[in-house]
Design goal:
With 146 residues, this protein is an alpha+beta fold. The protein is built from three helices and seven strands, in the order βααββββββα. The chain has a single domain, classed as START domain (Alpha-D-Glucose-1,6-Bisphosphate, Chain A, domain 4, 2-Layer Sandwich), CATH 3.30.530.20.
């Protein structure tokens, strides 16, 4: 058994605008990294993400960044001593509509690994909903959510 998941959603904006909402730290901080994102998601860099609702900034390594179709990240898991890999794919599906698919894996096949994977699956699902609200309507759903 390989602990991994995949979630997706459609954003009613162009692939370029949707990609920029994740890549650009100012936009990302408007709906997801509520404590700030230190820099754009440039391939080969490590950025710091902070969340007001989960205090403590942490490093996010940008493995790949291919505008406007792919972002691949690596970060520490809630499961001690483990790192997980996040692959975000963007695909134009209609005029001004982008399918965003987020997959993550790398946890141990343990109770701790399973719990950590469920937490991240919930987080990425909520990120997609918050991203949709922010990019399409300018609303920050995450504010006061946790």
């Amino acid at each position: 058994m390989n602990l991994q998941f995949e979630v997706y959603g459609k954003i009613q904006r162009s692939i370029d605008e949707t990609f920029d909402a994740m890549y650009n730290p100012n936009k990302l901080s408007g709906y997801f990294t509520t404590g700030g994102a230190s820099a754009p998601l440039v391939e080969g860099t490590t950025v710091m993400w902070d969340f007001h609702d989960f205090p403590g900034a942490f490093p996010v390594k940008v493995i790949r960044s291919e505008k406007p179709k792919l972002i691949e990240l690596e970060w520490d898991s809630a499961e001690k001593g483990k790192k997980t890999r996040v692959v975000i794919k963007l695909e134009s599906v209609e005029e001004n509509s982008t399918k965003v698919t987020i997959a993550e894996g790398g946890w141990s096949e343990t109770e701790e690994g399973l719990k950590a994977s469920y937490g991240n699956c919930m987080g990425w699902s909520q990120m997609l909903a918050a991203m949709k609200a922010y990019v399409e309507y300018g609303i920050n759903l995450r504010q006061g959510f946790y």
